[in-house]
Amino acid sequence: MSITINQPLDMHLHLRDEAMLKTVAPLSSHSFSGAIIMPNLVPPVSTKEELLAYKERIIHACGSDTFTPYMTLFFKPTYTKAFLESIKDELTAIKLYPAGITTNSEGGVSGFEVETLRETLEAMSELEIPLCIHGETNGFVMDREAEFVSIYEMLATNFPKLKIIMEHITTKESVEALDKFENLYATITLHHLLITLDDVAGGMLQPHLFCKPIAKRPEDREALRKVALNAHPKVMFGSDSAPHPQHAKESCGCAAGVFTAPIALQVLTELFMEHSTLKNLQAFVSDHAKAIYNHIKVPHKTVTLEKKPFVVPAKYDNVIPMYAGETLAYSILEIKG
Length: 337
Ligand code: DOR
Ligand code: ZN
Fold this sequence. Notes:
The protein is built from 12 helices and 11 strands. It is an alpha/beta fold.
């Protein structure tokens, strides 16, 4: 039996730059129709010139693949309405990082006072630019996301017309927040559907599974699985595939990020199949994203998978993927478009 996915979308992706971009971009552009591209380069993408130049470099790295990079800016509370109007047609969303919370986020937001954020967030609401948020406080690592829910609620209440995407949610508290506020949505990664903290640190430390937000408890994973596998309409797939060179992961001071781009569709297929929810995979990896980001144009592409062993390469250049060297149950058979 084969499974065909129409227009797969990855709504949260790190492609980096230079040599790393050349290594990883084709691994997404091969099997996805498009992806929301994260802006946390050094320096972060925060001007129109930087955004357009980065988009060009991505398109070049994707070669002849049919793939749309949906560009984002790195949120700053100093963005004016005039600036956002001038860049609106070039971007799909703006990504907000709390300062210092993860890789290359030092220039992020250091306080969440409504009045400091009001001008930019009202302009975004009026211009219908979604706000993607890395929702973690600087509290205890296991509690950071749950603590951030009150900030999501404050933003959702004060800016009711703003579409707010809770990125890479990992907790049952975030899942619960989804149904409380009409303007809250979420992405869920592959790795957070699969692992808990036990897989990262319960035995020998697994640096290639270390990421932010850190994987949580079994009941949190259960809450994520429930909404992803049952096609909750406010939930969409965003891999947060975040490559780092091997030396930066296997080191004293491991960089956060799990590299899943080359295995995402194969493993999602297996997961949905195992739970007898394959009929909902299309919604999770494409249809909900199209409905939530209702302005995007999605290029035509179909990806057909079949039950056939796929041995995950040990490395892609100097990047180690999740499940490196292991055999997956599903392979990509054909890509059209
Ligand atoms: O694990 C992570 N890696 N989480 C993030 O939020 C950022 C990402 C990265 O850029 O490496
Ligand atoms: Zn990310």
